[in-house]
Design goal:
mainly alpha; 6 strands; 8 helices; single chain; 274 residues; globular
Length: 274
Amino acid sequence: MTVYPLSFSLFGLEVTGFGIMMMVAFLGSGWVMQLELKRRGLNPDFSADIVLAGVVGGILGARLWYVALHGGPLLSRAGLVWYGGFLGGVAAVLAMSWWKRVPVRFTFELTAPALALGHGLGRVGCFLVQDDYGVPTTLPWAMKFPEGQPPTTAASLARWGVDVPAGTPPDAVLAVHPTQLYEVAALLFMFWLLWRLRRHRHAVGWLFGVYLGAVGLERFLVEFLRAKDDRLLGVFTLAQVTSLALLAVGVGVMILLRRADGFTVAPKDGLAPR
């Protein structure tokens, strides 16, 4: 199957599938947090504060991580790295939570399902602009991206250290694993699970540990199929090393907060109903 990127012009501005899905991801994440705040009888406007902080911190962090790895100007529309976006977004949301005098543990608990949903929707955007794809494969659902970033040509893949069949013309477009869609499926399942677990009896903040462990494991596994050039420890990529760190932290949080401990959230300051 040959797939082309989604891109069009609107009033002289270029609109891409990635930009559309980024907007959908932030709106969807804000919506599910708003639902949970309403269920708890707390101020639903706090979800908008989280989204705003996540947008600013996430985009800045994703760009800074990319520049640190690959160089280039900081102010550019190209090049975002999820781990940088995650860390930048977390830092910005924590700062906002402290400013609003909202307990950090509650903020972590609230954002866990929303992060999984937003990440999954964002990966749809990666598919629509055709980056973050996998290595060549002959599976029936393999896809060719002749206008990908970069195109899935034999020459482009070889520059990333990906094995291509001997004698393949450099300009031949190869079919690859649509790893973006693999992640969409995994992350949406993760959201479903976290959304159900939010009613499970546990200490406030435990749900964020589940998210960290699940997303770390998911990314560690999918990286084996990604077309990458950042192998760090043998066959392992930088993203996999980071994934293992997230997995370890997530398991630690789950162990630490595995039982309800009487921690409560008072409806005050940034959480007070208006």
